Amino acid sequence: MGPSLVIEAAGQDAARENIPALLEHGIDVLITSVGALADNTTYAAMVNAARKGQCRLIIPAGAVASLDYLGALGNITPVSVVYESRKPVAAWREELRALGIDPDTLDEEVELFAGSANEAALRYPKNLNVAATLALAGVGMEQTRVRVVVDPRAAGNQHRVTVQSALGTLETTLVNNPSPGNPKTSWIVSQSVIHAVRRQFATVLIGG
What we know:
Layout: E1 5-8, H1 12-24, E2 28-31, H2 40-53, E3 57-58, H3 67-72, E4 80-87, H4 93-98, E5 110-116, H5 117-123, H6 129-137, E6 144-150, E7 157-165, E8 168-176, E9 178-179, E10 182-186, H7 188-200
Parallel strand pairs: 1-2, 2-3, 4-6
Antiparallel strand pairs: 4-7, 5-6, 7-8, 9-10
Helix pairs in contact: 1-2, 5-6
């Protein structure tokens, strides 16, 4: 008898290589490298594998909120979803150096990226899993717009989500403390994974 649940925490390449086989064997998988799903081929392969194995691919909320709201929009059109990621310099030191910017002397904010969720998630696999999660919960990869800002004055990892539709307007802003061992991700992410595991085996479900 196999495991009831496998948690992937090994990166996008490992997710692509290993998750489909687990799903085909009927094993539920909780994926943390959600950015891998920004690739249409990868996403389709995992969905088909889950259907074949009659199991589920589980995506935790991670560092962001608002997923229930996005899911509730259903077939409402049009819907505008804009996500802004604003993190301190420590989260982007390598990327800044690649652009010829000295992270140690940066004293004003820099827009690192503006575009679609799929491009953001694939370009920055260690930082932008949130973009993929929001897109999958809502209006899709191309329609979800993303802005990435490096801000020397940011108090933490800030996530701002703005949604506009005929049903109303949603604006949420989270300021998460960075993970002590990895400034690219938020400390809350590990707790979100634990919550998702508990929810998987819970008797009572709230939200979702």
